[in-house]
Amino acid sequence: MSETTTYTVTGMTCGHCAASVTEEISEIAGVEGVDVVVETGAVTVTSATPLDESAVRAAVEEAGYALV
C-alpha cells in the first residue's frame, strides 16, 4: 500500500519551480509520484514506504526552496 504525505514548500512561484521540486523529490528512493500546487505550496508525495522527512527537506533545499 502506498503512503501519501503532503508537505508545504515556500518560495515557488511558477511551473519551473514546481518542476524543479518534483525532479528533486522524485529522485528519493521509493517515491512513486509528486503533485505540486504552486499557488498554495502544497507538495503531495506518494511513496512505496514512509519517507524520511529529512530526505524530502534536503531534496526541496537542493531545488532552491524551503520545507515549512
UniProtKB/TrEMBL annotation:
Q: Which residue ranges does the record assign to the HMA domain?
A: 3-68
Which keywords has UniProt assigned to this entry?
Metal-binding
Keyword Metal-binding listed: yes
Listed Gene3D superfamilies: 3.30.70.100
- Tell me if Kinase is a UniProt keyword of this record: no
Q: Which InterPro entries match?
A: Heavy-metal-associated_CS, HMA_dom, HMA_dom_sf, MerP/CopZ
- Pfam families attached here? HMA
PROSITE patterns given for it? HMA_1, HMA_2
What is the name listed in the Swiss-Prot or TrEMBL entry for this protein? Answer: Cation transporter
**Natural source organism:** Nocardioides pini
